[in-house]
Structure formats: structure tokens, C-alpha cells
Design brief:
Layout: E1 6-14, E2 17-26, E3 31-36, H1 45-53, E4 59-68, H2 71-75, H3 80-96, H4 105-120, H5 124-174, H6 178-192, H7 202-214, H8 218-235, H9 242-263, H10 266-286
Parallel strand pairs: 3-4
Antiparallel strand pairs: 1-2, 2-4
Helix pairs in contact: 1-5, 3-4, 5-8, 5-10, 6-7, 8-9, 9-10
Length: about 290
Amino acid sequence: MRSMTGYGRAGAALAGGTLTVQVNSVNRKGLDLSVKLPEEWESLEAEIGERVRRVASRGKVHVDVEFQAGKGRADASWSDEAVGAVLDRLAALADTRHIPFEPTAELLWQVASSQRTQAGVPAADGVRVEVARCVDEALGAFAAMRGKEGETLLEDFTARVGLCRRTIDAVAQRAPAVAPGYRALLLKRLRDAGLELDLGDERVLREIALFADRCDVSEEITRFRSHLEQLSALLGSGEEIGRKADFILQELGREANTIGSKANDLEIAKSVIELKNELERIREQMANVE
């Protein structure tokens, strides 16, 4: 089991500078992938996406690839011709708008700095292998963190499933006593009302039979147990479980609601509330599972 929350980071020396890759994710129903990298490396985005999909199938995953040129390289990386071309374009634009254009030292520095950053990034083809290696290292740390958190979630799920199993067992033990209890209560009310009826009276027997049929939850208990076993098996399968678990939890909730509405018994109603609380806690946590 893997969580959808994770973080990984890796760095390496590259082309006289420093390469840093960071990967992080939060929960999301599907895979929502975004990649941020230098403009000159946009051709690497598809390959980075493929590497992410090898380790993540769900979650909002963001990959940040950053290159910081070495200090000496950055100081000499801009082109005087490129800076001049930018200033000429700005002057022409200002002229067409009839705006006075008087370049300042601050503007010159801003233009030169922007050109320096672009010039300091090496070509994508020359760094493809190094970038892929750094991305894989960051993804390895990212996947390890998701796996470790997934183990913690699995322990929590296992404990909660065990509690649900014990609770439904208590419901199954209590259920057979509901109809006889109603029978005794019905006869007491009739006696209290001064109506002495024979226990074999057809009207009494019919009322008790109808109640016993309405409050019979044996089928719902059987289905609840079956769904619970399916959930337990899924948790231990080691495969992607998020979407399947959502469906099973819906079915468990439906059976719990039916048991609560049919049983007409205070003790069973308390157990159903406990079941629904545990199922809701599992559902909330399941939103973080891949």
C-alpha cells in the first residue's frame, strides 16, 4: 500500500552548475502531473512524465527541476548583442506608442540578468542523461516516503477493520433476541391495557410474524461480512486499492444503514452508529491511498 502524499529531493553537479530536482504530491482521485523546468529543457518534460508514471498512478504530483549556473559562468554568460537587441525592441515599441524611452542602469541590469540566466542553461540534449538520473533519484526517495506512510495507513486500516468485524459479530449475536423481545413487550402492553389474549391468537401471531420479518437483518449481516472480507483482502493485496476500496466502503455503508433502519433495537442501533463512525474514518484515510 502506498500513500498519495510524498516528497523526494535529489541534486547533482551539472555543466559547471547545480541541478536540483524536487518531487512532491498530495491526494487526488486521478494522476494530476505538473512539471516545472527551465524553458530550454521543455523537450524533456514528456520523458520526465513517463518516469513519474512508473512510480505513481494517483495524486497531484509536482516535479520541480531547477538549474543554477556556476557563479563564474553566470557572470560571463550574457551576450552583449542579445541585450542590445532587447533594448532596440523596447525602444521601437515605445516609439510606436509615442512613449519617451530613456534606458536606465537599472533597466540595463534587468535585461542583462534575464539574458544571463537563459544563456547559463546548457542545451537539453547535452544533459538528458544526467537530468534523468537525478529525476530517478528524487522519485526513489519520493516513492519510499509514500510506501512508508502507506505502511502506517495499513496498520490503521487493519485495526479499524478488526473493530468493524467485532461490532458486526455483536450485532449478529443480538439480532435473534429482537423478535422474542418484541413479542414479550407486545404481550405486556396488551395486558397493561386490560386485553387478555391467548398466546395462540391469530392476530398476535400475525403481528409478531410481521415484525420478525421486518427486523430480520441476517442477509444484511452476511453481506456486510462479505464486503468486510473483500476489503481486508484488498488491503493485503499490495495492488492499487483506492478506487476499489471506495466502492466496497459504499456497500458497507449501505448495509449498515439498512441494518440500523430494520433492526428496531437500541443495542443494534448503537452498534450501527459505531460501525458508521469507523467506516467514515476509513473512508477519510482512504482518500490518501493510491
